[in-house]
Amino acid sequence: MTNLDEPLQKVLGDKTAKVLSKGLDLHTVGDLLHHYPRRYAHRGELTPLNELADGEHVTVMAEVVKVQGRALSRSPGYVLEITVTDGTGELKLSFFGRRGSYIPERDLSPGTRGLFAGKISTYRPRSGRPQRQLAHPQYKVVAARDADAAAREWADEIIPIHPTTKGLDIDAIGKSVATVLDLADLGDDPMPETLRDRLGMIPLADAYEGIHRPKDWEQLGRARKRLKWDEAFVLQIALAQRRRAAAALPARPRPSTGDGILHAFDQRLPFDLTEGQLQVGEEIAADLAESHPMHRLLQGDVGAGKTIVALRAMLQVVDNGGQAALLAPTEVLAQQHYRSITRMLGELGQSGQIGGAERATRVTLVTGSQGAKVRRASLLEAASGDAGIVVGTHALLEDHVQFADLGLVVVDEQHRFGVEQRDALREKVSGGRPHVLVMTATPIPRTVAMTVFGDLETSVLGQLPAGRSAIGTHVVPPEKPAFLARTWERIREEAGKGRQVYIVCPRIGEREGDEGDVPAPPDEEGRRSPLGIMELLPMLEDELLAGLRIGVLHGKLHPDEKDAVMRRFAAGELDVLLATTVIEVGVDVPNATAMVIMDADRFGVSQLHQLRGRVGRGTLPGLCLLVTDAEPGSKARERLDAVASTTDGFALSRLDLEQRREGDVLGAAQAGRASSLRLLTLQRDEDVIRLAREEATALVEDDPELERHPGLATELASLLDEERTEYLEKT
């Protein structure tokens, strides 16, 4: 027997171990044991040769009647052609290889009876009629006396197909797995026996046997159930321990005062908060009143009113003498937040200024592009505590940025920030941790996964504020060129009514290979490179939209230029804003009613939903046109059709998740390593994950250090190596 940490070269030899290490990143017995089959083949029922159809996966029993080998004319290869019959028809079997390589001439001589399995295809010889064939079929020679029984057994056999690599075929990797399966010492079962019995789970050793060498589909199902549970349960143990440790960290309570700036702000709101905003506000207010740090995710669809919820939380902290920092991923968004918050607060945000309210705070902006004088003044307001609300970009993370009493960190579009960046801002609090509120509109897959897996407490804004208009979304496809001509007409119509339009391109296009702020997804179908705004601009100015006032916005402009363009657009001085994805989040111009997204198939689902959320922000209906040359039936076109079919951001995040998967909850995806999740998926296994969270929470409360569960402690230690432990501590 050998333990799971044993290097593979000691078990399989240097040659095989080297291939597994280089090609599949498998180094130990445990690595290979967790290298599960990606699918399972089933040979199925025997098929008469006269009933074969192209594309079918079949198993036939037949007798060899002719064997002929020949050299290939255009390469040094060799092909063995074997003709078989079952009395109803004939079938050609083709085996390709090189002279000297293994080709089954000796096994399949004339008169031999056998079972042959594979996918039927038709080939056309230079002379003669088309013939059905099996290329490189699986086969098994059977004796006449036990042919029927062997046929049934062979047809019913489940064939595990393990992911393989160059230099190691499916049979070879299957034999390697079988070797470690027979030799591995699994130690204590990590799952407590009482829990295993209560949930009807099989022992771990039986699960590994069932996943790698299932005798039937029922055994395979039991194995997958157990191994999925282990992935969910061990991960939830890690997160439960983290939540327990987080609850023990100190944070200064910031309870609602009832009569401060927040109360005055609520009294002056020109509209009623939605029921969802009030409910979420209460959840956040309760968290802020605790003596341990809040760590909450605020999910709300585009336009659901997350900013005002976050602002009310910031004012609650300010009323308690603390400060709040709002971290935004771009300068455009930071400036937008700064202007929006300043406008909403009015005199309540003008502390120490003429016209300021008696009880007020101050809002300041910190960005990397500020001039030295303005930056010094902003940093002084943050460090002295004069500014209760500090809005900024990554510049807030720099060492010289200090706060008097940072009580709340709000992170907008948190997936744009790395773990270390978010951690740097939290470290600016001495003697404890700040409360943290993370916001996102359409959760990217990993964010959705983190939510369901339980790393964050979650608040959801499910309804739009009153007065928000619907957004109609339509695909402008290549098979209907008149639709594109109508697109430019529609822009002119909107401008003629005094309304404004966004046109979005995936790249800047100033020079070859310039992909702008966000690289476009790789082209799936070998089409042309995506259109850049600098390539489209002359066409718009000279022909398509001649006479309209067009502004340009992209990530390579100087921040002052970006701000100037946005101010002109917001003031109605521009009819059209031609931009890259710098407008993806936060930009709020109620008079903008239409958006045209060029090469829309080059954007992800979440990006498209975020982009179209820039229109329909006032009382006028919004329109989003997705221009594409993706053909009907392609994956890219299916993605666009899905976006056009719904404005439900949470439904779209599911689609995004299905296409991209959730990444590794413990950060391995960011570190370029294999995921800890092999069988567990968010879409199919939410019930498993939720139950695992309940059971893990109860077990950790009863046995925080897993002293009475050594097998589970060992499994957790293998999951949480030093890198992943550090990741969990930071998140």
UniProtKB/TrEMBL annotation:
<dbReference type="Pfam" id="PF00270">
    <property type="entry name" value="DEAD"/>
</dbReference>
<keyword id="KW-0067">ATP-binding</keyword>
<dbReference type="GO" id="GO:0003678">
    <property type="term" value="F:DNA helicase activity"/>
</dbReference>
<dbReference type="Pfam" id="PF17191">
    <property type="entry name" value="RecG_wedge"/>
</dbReference>
<dbReference type="InterPro" id="IPR027417">
    <property type="entry name" value="P-loop_NTPase"/>
</dbReference>
<feature type="domain" description="Helicase C-terminal">
    <location>
        <begin position="483"/>
        <end position="658"/>
    </location>
</feature>
<dbReference type="InterPro" id="IPR033454">
    <property type="entry name" value="RecG_wedge"/>
</dbReference>
<keyword id="KW-0227">DNA damage</keyword>
<dbReference type="InterPro" id="IPR012340">
    <property type="entry name" value="NA-bd_OB-fold"/>
</dbReference>
<dbReference type="Pfam" id="PF00271">
    <property type="entry name" value="Helicase_C"/>
</dbReference>
<dbReference type="InterPro" id="IPR001650">
    <property type="entry name" value="Helicase_C-like"/>
</dbReference>
<protein>
    <recommendedName>
        <fullName>Probable DNA 3'-5' helicase RecG</fullName>
    </recommendedName>
</protein>
<dbReference type="InterPro" id="IPR014001">
    <property type="entry name" value="Helicase_ATP-bd"/>
</dbReference>
<dbReference type="InterPro" id="IPR047112">
    <property type="entry name" value="RecG/Mfd"/>
</dbReference>
<dbReference type="GO" id="GO:0016787">
    <property type="term" value="F:hydrolase activity"/>
</dbReference>
<dbReference type="Pfam" id="PF19833">
    <property type="entry name" value="RecG_dom3_C"/>
</dbReference>
<keyword id="KW-0234">DNA repair</keyword>
<keyword id="KW-0238">DNA-binding</keyword>
<keyword id="KW-0347">Helicase</keyword>
<dbReference type="GO" id="GO:0003677">
    <property type="term" value="F:DNA binding"/>
</dbReference>
<dbReference type="GO" id="GO:0006281">
    <property type="term" value="P:DNA repair"/>
</dbReference>
<keyword id="KW-0547">Nucleotide-binding</keyword>
<dbReference type="InterPro" id="IPR011545">
    <property type="entry name" value="DEAD/DEAH_box_helicase_dom"/>
</dbReference>
<dbReference type="InterPro" id="IPR045562">
    <property type="entry name" value="RecG_dom3_C"/>
</dbReference>
<keyword id="KW-0378">Hydrolase</keyword>
<dbReference type="GO" id="GO:0005524">
    <property type="term" value="F:ATP binding"/>
</dbReference>
<feature type="domain" description="Helicase ATP-binding">
    <location>
        <begin position="287"/>
        <end position="461"/>
    </location>
</feature>
